[in-house]
Amino acid sequence: MPETGQEPEQLALMRRVVQLAEEQTRQSAERTEQSAERSYMNAERTLSVWTRTALSLMIFGIAVDRFGLLLRHERWVHLGNPFLPNPLSTLGGVVLVALGVLMVLTCGFRYLAYARDWGRVHAWPKQHAPWLAFSFAMAVAAFGIALLVVLLMFTE
After folding, report:
1. Furthest-apart CA pair in the chain: how many Å?
2. C-alpha neighbours within 13 Å on the C-beta side of residue 122
């Protein structure tokens, strides 16, 4: 039978080991939640980057359409009116704007699906919800659709 003086020391050591294990578990849970929050913020930043890229595509599409960047203006293409935009440049501009709209719609809905799944498992970060970023992406898509309408209305 062990000495009675060692038992309290062993119990104290075991309690200390249990306390350290509980502290590590708590810290691990905090790190996991912080990692999940970073993952959500990364998804939001990714949506922002794709939205910016889509907006750039739309603006480039306007430039291609309005300034005839695809082909030089040839008089015979316009049949007498040199001020009409080049039809190929207009087509190129419409395609670029439509690609930008498709890009922002796709990324916006993918982000919303990810955010909804994420929100089912984790608590939202302070003063955050997926609706602001998604709404901005949809506003950019609405801008692109309006651009498409304008570009298609003012063709030959």
Report:
1. 113
2. 23
